[in-house]
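Morning!

This is the sequence you dropped in the shared folder:
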Amino acid sequence: MPEKVLVTREIPAAGLRPLQDFDLTVLSEAPPERDELLEAARGAAGVLSNVTEGIDAEFMDAAGDGLKVVANMAVGYDNVDVDAADERGIIVTNTPGVLDETTADTAFMLLLAAARRLGESERTLRAGDWEWWGPKLFVGVDVWGKKLGIVGLGRIGQAVARRGKGFGMEILYHNRSRNEDAERAFDARHADLDELLETADFVSVHTPLTDETQHLIGPEELAKMKPTAVLVNTSRGPVVNEEALADALADGRIFAAGLDVYENEPQVHPKLLGLENAVLAPHIGSGSTETRNRMAVLAAENIVAVLSGEEPKTPVGV
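The structure's back. Tokens below.
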């Protein structure tokens, strides 16, 4: 009998084709309830999961001893307990590389929209409240030639840096270690976090969510930013203290923010929802047809490789 593979959410058809020879269970488009997820896991040899599902020790034990691989359809894998998987001999994979450019597009889209007050001005127009052009109407801040601070210069951070260079921006970055190749490629300068926050006109966050990066940007960090600065987050919601950010925006301590991720998705802090200088997107960072297809196929190929006794393409480290 073919081995069971669980797909925890509906995914693009391109990602299901490599799995057609398995006993395939695909749950609904909406995130499954916990009981439904645990029940569906029983007997699975492979799981294709999403960031919305907690793949923890309880889930792995519900699946049983036959579970060999969890393929997370995302770059981040903070929803997967990698230590618990390692203890059980379960391989965990993710989908790096295939969504870098699309997510960088989203980050720069939010940066531009926040800088030029696009959301606020469009809402005014659609409501029929635009009465005339005026010299002081919806005045934002320039992007070209400004200083872009990138927190986390990995693949996506570097893709954002390339876009910044196209706008003639000066690139600062903060990483745990220097990336001299990227420094040469983008004429970028390494800085500690305090200097980056104090001097950058735009701060774009691209770090994974870990214990160290939880609330990496909080009240103290926001207080260091310029009152004309814009913060963009397309990494993980809890990297930014949402309430502190809402307060800083409401008080005019920073100019604007563009967010694609939130601390308690799909809930968004109510203070943010009422702020005109917050540009808010519903986690669409990798949301192009081409990229979501590539993510689904890569996740599926990782499952096929492991269940065929081969090495997966993109295993994560412990």
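Headline: The mean pLDDT is 97.

More detail when I'm at my desk.
O.
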